[in-house]
Structure formats: structure tokens, C-alpha cells
Amino acid sequence: MGSVRIGMIGTGGIARNRHLPCFTKNTDCEVVAIADVVQTSLDEVGAQFGINGLYTDYKEMFAKERLDGVVVCTPNKFHAPASIDALNAGINVLCEKPMALDPTEGRAMIAAAEKNHKILTVGFHYRHRAQVKAAKKVIESGELGHIYMVRVNALRRRGIPSWGSFVHKDIQGGGAMIDFGVHTLDSALYLLGNPKPIEVSATLSQHLGTKPNVNPWGQWNYQQFTVEDQVAAFVRFDNGATMLLECSWALNVPETKETISLSGTEAGLDVFPLKINKAQHDMLLSWSPDWMPNENDEPGIGQAADFINAIKTGQPTNCTAAQALQVTDIVDAMYRSAAAGHAISL
Asked: In order of start, what are the domains of the chain with their CATH numbers?
């Protein structure tokens, strides 16, 4: 197979700042076309990245460009329909996270991929961060023993998106959790080996998002804020493991931070930054690496390479559609649990 022909749907921030820079740097592919309903955005991005195929209708792009793969960079509401249309057109799909608004849409995407024998993967690029890759190697070595407790934090002191449609539930499906928390949730599940979740209990709030306040990213549309700015959740898995998760866009905490901490029967591991904690030689020890490969690399580079390699070789992608659906299942259960006021069984 020669150079992989890539198209992109959506020319907003995630396309301009991650996917287009990463795919255009990859010598095994060529970004030949982009689609967006906003002509001015199309023209700007086409000029910036030297792309000649510009379309306001992505179906026309599918029909004319002989694409091998497409990257879906739309608001969440359009992830499922755009991905399904691409798969039905015989095109492999990398869809930005989250996979879909809800599990029903996610399962429809998987059905379309299976029916058309095409790749469907989702943009959980944290899997390509050096710390997550190193943590996976440590865990697979057996050094931690059986992992039975995981703590996940994705906390911003103040960081509500002030652009796009992030604060509108009908377009995005949710707020801090579906936008921001899914990255650390997915990475934690990946490190655990994606055990089956059996119960989810959660609460959510919107105390800070519905009124003006300090926000380094500028003033957001607080008058139309219909999503959560904070989530706290507890997840039980069929292998006996449990997870405590907390996520926020805006919370009165000392600092913004992301952490994943895994506790096993033999040792524990913190991911950001990477550190191993254990009892050994009659001492309590912690160690961290002096060096790790590609520590400062943009994880989108690895994500793009993974998708292109899967198209060229037929090998599985790092993030399977089934694993991405698991994230959607859990987040959906969080929202349902918070609304119902009790735990949700899966």
C-alpha cells in the first residue's frame, strides 16, 4: 500500500492544534481533504496546511477523494453520524473522544465498523504519553501484583472552555467528565487491562459554571451552562478492583492536576509523574525513572502513527472500539447515577 489518504471532518481547535499537525508530519500518509460546514474555517485551514480538497459536505468528500481513513473532529453530537457515514462509505475512522453521546450511539458505530470490515478507533491520546506507556510495561511485568484500588483525578482549579459548544449538554452530552475526565478514566482502564465495570455511583455539580468567576481561559457562556463542572464517582469491577474518580473544570483546590494512582498487592504506581511505591528490604521505598524514551513527545504523533499503521497492515489499533465503548458506558452510568441518586448496575 502506498501513501495513506486521510480526510478530516471538522476544522476546529482539535483538528488545527493536534490532528492536522500530527498527520501532516507523518510521511506514510497525506491529508488530501478536509470538510467543515463553515467555509471561512475551511479556507483558513486549507491555506495553513496546504490542503486543496475543501468540502462543506463530507459526503461529497467521501465520494470524490478515495480516502483510506478519516478523522472525525466535530462536536460530540456529530461523532456517531459522521463516523457511521464514513464507515458505510468504506473508510476507516479515527473519531475524537468521547466516542459518542451515549452507549446506544457507540454500539451503532461498532456495528457499522463490523458490517463494513473497517477500523474504528477513538482519540484517547493519553495512551501514547510516555508515562502511560512506561506504566503499562511495569504493570505487565507483574511488579504490582493484583491491582485492587485505583484513584483517578482530573482537576482544574479554573479551566472552563470559553470557546466552542462545550457548555451545551444537547451538543456535547455533558461537561467536565465527558470532555476532560474521559482521558484519565480511559488511561486507568487501559492500565487495569479493561476489566468489566459492574456498578457505578456518582454525584455531579454545577456550582461554579453557572455564574461568572475567574477563568484563565476567558469568560465562558455561564448564562447557558447546562453541563456539570464537577463529578465524583465510585466504580466497581468484576475482578474485585475499585476506582475512585474525581473530575472538575472548576474547583476550589490549590492547583490543577491530573493523577492516576494504582495500588496492588506487591506495589503501587503513580503515573503523573511516574513513581513506584513498595515495601522491600525492611524499608518503604519509592523510585522514579531518571529517563524514559520520548518523554516530551506530542502523544498525537503516536496516535496518528498507530491509525496509519493499522490501515496499512491490518494490525489492531492501540485503542479498540470496544474499549472506547467501555468509557462511554461508565460515563453514561455516572450521569444516570447522579440523576437517580443511587448506584447504577451495568
From this structure: 4-125+299-318 (3.40.50.720), 127-295+328-345 (3.30.360.10)
Pairing of strands 344-345, 197-205: antiparallel
What does the pLDDT look like over 253-279, one tens digit per residue? 999 999 999 999 999 999 999 999 999
pLDDT interval class at 296 (50, 70, 90): confident
Q: Residue 173 is placed in which grid cell?
A: 452530552
Q: Helices 103-116 and 321-340 sit at what angle, rounded to 10 degrees? A: 160
In whole angstroms, give the CA distance from residue 199 to residue 345: 4
Distance CA 63, CA 188 (A): 39
- C-alpha dihedral, 295 to 299 to 301 to 306, nearest 10°: 110
φ, ψ for residue 250, nearest 5 deg: -150, 115
Phi-psi region of 282 (alpha: psi -120 to 50; beta: other; left: phi over 0): left
CB atoms within 10 A of CB 320: 16
Query: The pTM is what?
Result: 0.96
Which amino acid, residue 317? Answer: T
Q: Of the candidates 46, 78, 57, 53, which has an alpha carbon nearest to the alpha carbon of residue 67?
A: 53
N-term to C-term CA, the chain? 42
Burial (CB < 10 A; 0-12, 13-18, 19+), residue 192, is middle
Phi, then psi, of 22 in degrees rounded to 5: -75, -45
